[in-house]
Amino acid sequence: MDSVVYLGGLVVLFLLWVKVKGLEYVIIHQRWIFVCLFLLPLSVIFDIYYYLRAWVIFNMCSAPKLHDQRVKDIQRQVREWKKEGSKTYMCTGRPGWLTVSLRVGKYKKTHKNIMINLMDILEVDTKRQVVRVEPLANMGQVTALLNSIGWTLPVLPELDDLTVGGLVMGTGIESSSHIYGLFQHICVAYELVLADGSLVRCTAEENSELFYAVPWSCGTLGFLVAAEIRIIPARRYVRLRYEPVSGLEKICQKFSSESANKKNQFVEGLVYSRDQAVIMTGVMTEEAESDKINSIGHYYKPWFYKHVESYLRANRSGVEYIPLRHYYHRHTRSIFWELQDIIPFGNHPAFRYLFGWMVPPKISLLKLTQGETIRKLYEQHHVVQDMLVPMKHLEQSISAFHNDINVYPLWLCPFVLPSQPGMVHPKGNEDELYVDIGAYGEPSSKQFEAQASMRQLEKFVREVHGFQMLYADVYMNREEFWEMFDGSLYQKLREQLNCKEAFPEVYDKICKSARH
Predict the structure, then answer these.
(1) Shortest CA distance to 220 belongs to which of 467, 509, 472?
(2) How many CB atoms lie within 10 A of CB 368?
(3) Which of 45-49, 119-123, 216-220, 242-246 has the lowest mean pLDDT?
(4) Is 470 helix (H, G, I), strand (E, B) or coil?
(5) What 3 state SS string does 385-414 have?
(6) For every residue of 170-221, which 3-state class applies, written as one string?
(7) Distance of CA 1 to the CA centre of its chain
(8) What are the C-alpha distances in Å from 297 to residues 115, 334, 344?
(9) How far apart are CA 222 and CA 90, in angstroms?
(10) What are the C-alpha distances in Å from 41 to residues 282, 316, 348?
(11) How far apart are CA 403 and CA 448, in angstroms?
């Protein structure tokens, strides 16, 4: 009884303190309090709800029946928009704060919102080796189901909340991409509702131009209502080898050679300074050495990037066996390394054991509660960027990142970029090995100024024929954007499908002025 009274007294004192200081002050200056007391429990409730809902719907086989009804409702909404005179552009009705991107699109307030309630796994066809899913199904759902029946996606992007629709209309990558390419390259079919309300299916053979134009189009060619994605047999573990490397030239040589080696099913690099990195290579396996199993995904385990850094500090290589689902979501608990800025003591053993089971907070809830002041602070003093550059320019690229923003760790993820039609393809006519360089955190460069520094980095990426992921802040003007991306097929489809009156151009959805 005494303990209850004591806790109650603490709660009352806390609420009084919040009242005196103001909620905005607490959210800005002591954000970890707000996150730990409110956002973490709320995130757990969200996770439980969506997990149970997906399980019930899939096991009762009701999703395919509901899917057809929901698609017809989307078609009805589009046709009503046409009947009303097509006065504004259309967009999905999903609130902007629910997306994984750190920005919220302003266009949601001015465009016609089409409600799309499609968040289920429709079918797993092991004979054809494909899974058919709706656009709002996320990677957490997909891995939980597929791994339980012995299958997986060839490319399974890291964060649980990433949706199929976002990965198709934007892009996605994983440490297996040096073999399979980007997320779009493991998709075999898309189903879309077009600007006239019609439903169309496209593949590499059927409506092929639309099939290649959809990726990176950000929902400006039609509404995605389903996708068919390749699946491959899964194994219980990933045998992961950690290899510390010193010296920028050696880091790039090691990473490049391991990425070109197709015997490696997974390749990843974490760069902790300009001349220190750990290169990881892995293969799936059914068997494991019992004393080397590391279930890194358990809530009480150290954050993965900190665990990797321990090999660098000890200057030793090592091998571990990580359960497959744990490996796929190894960066999820710490949101790569972003959570250290939100909960500075989050990797402390005491916090992990007591509260680690609630981590991470939902990115969507972090956005919803960040407020205008935090948003502006993040914009000026925080970087979240993924730049895709040819592997042959890796050394030059790391130097550019170091000089322009100086954020560490850097995430290195290799991928093969096929020579195919669409907005993103190699400069030549052959497939080419690229690398995603991810920078997430507070820049240490004294000369850093958000707009000027990022424009300088974007200019470098254009010069080496690289690409910028469009979830991030894009400072390029329209001319520079279409210098980076090939818009020929995209613009052709926009004209053919009468998209110009129905949807904004992709640049107008992702440019800096379109988001806040």
Answers:
(1) 509
(2) 15
(3) 45-49
(4) coil
(5) EEEEEEHHHHHHHHHHHHHHCCCCCEEEEE
(6) CCCCCCCHHHHCCHHHHEEEEEEECCCCCEEEECCCCCHHHHHHCCCCCCCC
(7) 46
(8) 35, 11, 20
(9) 9
(10) 34, 39, 19
(11) 9
Could you give the C-alpha distances from 508 to 65, 89, 298, 457, 504, in angstroms and in order? 36, 11, 41, 21, 6
How far CA 512 is from CA of 243, 276, 283, 473, in Å, comes to: 39, 33, 40, 6
Count of beta carbons in the 10 Å neighbourhood of residue 288: 18
Q: Beta-carbon neighbour count of residue 73 at 10 Å?
A: 14
Residue 18: predicted pLDDT = 57
DSSP 110-148: TSEEEP-----EEEEETTTTEEEE-TT-BHHHHHHHHHH
Q: What is the pLDDT of residue 43?
A: 84
Q: Identify residue 24 by its one-letter amino acid code.
A: E
What per-residue confidence (pLDDT) applies to 25? 54
Please report the pLDDT score of residue 181 as a whole number.
97
Tell me the average pLDDT of the chain.
89
8 A C-beta contact, residue 464 and residue 390: yes
Model confidence over 425-454: pLDDT tens digits? Answer: 999 889 999 999 999 998 988 888 988 999
Structure tokens at 383: 């970087």
Listed range (9-18, 46-55, 459-468) with the worst mean pLDDT: 9-18
User: Token match 């999903």: residue?
Assistant: 94
> Using CA atoms, how far apart are residues 467 and 486, in angstroms rounded to an integer?
10
Helix (H) or strand (E) holding 320: strand 318-323
Q: Which residues contact 365 (CB under 8 A, 6 or more apart)?
A: 39, 42, 43, 46
For residue 273, the model assigns a pLDDT of 96
* Average pLDDT of the residues in 381-396: 94
Residue 162, classed as helix, strand or coil, is coil
Each residue of 264-323: pLDDT tens digit?
999 999 999 999 999 999 999 999 999 999 999 999 999 999 999 999 999 999 999 999
Q: Are 108 and 99 in contact (CB under 8 A)?
A: no
List all residues 6 or more positions away from 120 whose beta carbon is below 8 Å from its beta carbon: 54, 57, 58, 63, 66, 67, 133, 134, 137
Rg (CA), the chain: 23
Contact call for residues 181 and 426 (beta carbons, < 8 A) = no
Q: Which of 33-37, 93-97, 330-334 has the lowest mean pLDDT?
A: 93-97
